Amino acid sequence: MKVRATFAKDGKWWVAWTEDVPGALTQGRTLKEAEENLVDAIREIQEPVDLEKLPKRRVVVKVIEV
To answer: How many alpha carbons lie under 13 Å from residue 5 in its C-beta half-sphere?
Structure first.
């Protein structure tokens, strides 16, 4: 899978995101680290979450209005 990624220097950090995968936003101390972190973020977003494996007393799932 290929996506168009955007990288912006913000102080000592590189911020990385892609509009191709909503919610994929991360940062890194170097451009390379930001790119690696973005790849990880995209993979995490695409991986389904097994709610049964999450600790039940610490997880709240609800719909909120924005």
So the answer is: 22
